[in-house]
Structure formats: structure tokens, C-alpha cells
Amino acid sequence: MAVTRFLLMRHAPTVWNQERRIQGQCDTPLSPQGLNLARSWALVLRNHDFQAVLTSDLRRAQETVEAVTNGKELPSMADPRLREQDWGQWTGLLLSDLTANEEFKAQAEQGWNFRPPEGESRRQVLHRALAALEDAGHRWPGQNVLVVTHQGVIKCLLYHAQSHPMLPGNPLLEKGYRLYLLDLEEQGLFLRGAGWPLPEMLETP
């Protein structure tokens, strides 16, 4: 099996990110500041060679791809399996309100089984995201693929690659806006680059 390398990055900020509001699968666009930020990332990505683009089908990811590729013609595919975690009843809540919620605190102790009411678990997110990367590996074997997705998806993939229990109090693996390198090999998915910082103007949840 030829090794496919994924250059994994999060979409640029939206107004809801700036408000620190839970988006989940709500299809929000980039904010004007987020669009400018994504355009600045195109300069960083010039130093990283990739031959294809895989993205979530949500608007904020699609707009980020358009900005960072800057009109570059590349094979691309939007995959709904790379959407953000479905946060169910907690979609739209402010993060500050949610983290004070006792039900949220109890769910956080469930690790991979964390699941918002009427939403999906982290384990479900991981399974669909892995399936999307495996299919992309068959589509583009041996190539470098830029993947633009969401914080929840990135978190699940990174923690899976590091065999992390994803429990409160454990060290965080994902930090702000960074570019992570994941290799899909015959034995599984492996983290090969711990994250190159991307220019950022704000911290967002």
C-alpha cells in the first residue's frame, strides 16, 4: 500500500467562533476576518507540496479551501463524513454557558463516548472521519492531500493516532491553528508532524 500523507488543518474563523458559540453542523460562513486569515494561510501552504484537496462539505470549510488554494487547479472532493461533530441540543450555546452545565461535565468524563443530547459521540465522529481518509487514500495513493475540516474532527484523528483516552485533565494534542501531518499506512494512521503554526489573529473554541 502506497503511503498517503494528509496535511490536516482547521477551517478559518466564523462569527460564531469569535462569539465562542458551539456550531456543530450548523452551516455558517467565514467572517470577514476569517476570510482574510485564510488568505494569509495560502502563503504558508506554498511551502508544503500537495496534489489534491479533501474537505468537509460545510460552507466554512469550502470557503477556507477556496482562499488557501487561491485558484490553484487541483483534484478535490467534499466529503460530508468530515463534518464537525453533531452537537444536538447544545448547538448554538455559548461555550461559557455549556461548560458550566452539569450534564456537559458528566459527558466530558465519558472520553470517547462523550455525546451531546440528540447529537453524536466522538467515537462516531472518529469512525466516519477515518472512513473518509481511507477512501481518499485509495483515490490518491502515495500523494499529499490537503484536508480542511473542523476542530472536533481533527481532535478525534490526532487523539486516535496517539492512542489518547480524551479525558479531562490529559494534555491537549491540538493547539490553535496548526498544520498536522498524518500518514495513512497499511498498519493504520500515524502522526508524523506535531503541527506547524499558521498565522492567527484570535483564539477560538
Taken from the alpha-carbon principal axes, the silhouette is: globular
Strand content: 15-25%
Largest sheet: 6 strands, mixed
Weakly predicted, low-confidence segments: none
Textual characterization of the structure:
34% of the residues lie in helices and 19% in strands. It has helices at residues 15-18, 32-45, 59-69, 95-99, 102-108, 122-139, 151-161; strands at 4-10, 52-55, 76-78, 144-149, 178-185, 188-197. The radius of gyration is 16 Å and the shape is globular. The termini are far apart. 36% of the residues are buried. The mean pLDDT is 92.
SSE inventory with pairings:
Elements: E1 4-10, H1 15-18, H2 32-45, E2 52-55, H3 59-69, E3 76-78, H4 95-99, H5 102-108, H6 122-139, E4 144-149, H7 151-161, E5 178-185, E6 188-197
Parallel strand pairs: 1-4, 2-3, 2-4
Antiparallel strand pairs: 1-5, 5-6
Concise account of the structure shown:
By secondary structure, this protein is α/β, with parallel strands linked by helices.
Structure keywords:
alpha/beta; single chain; 6-stranded mixed sheet; 205 residues
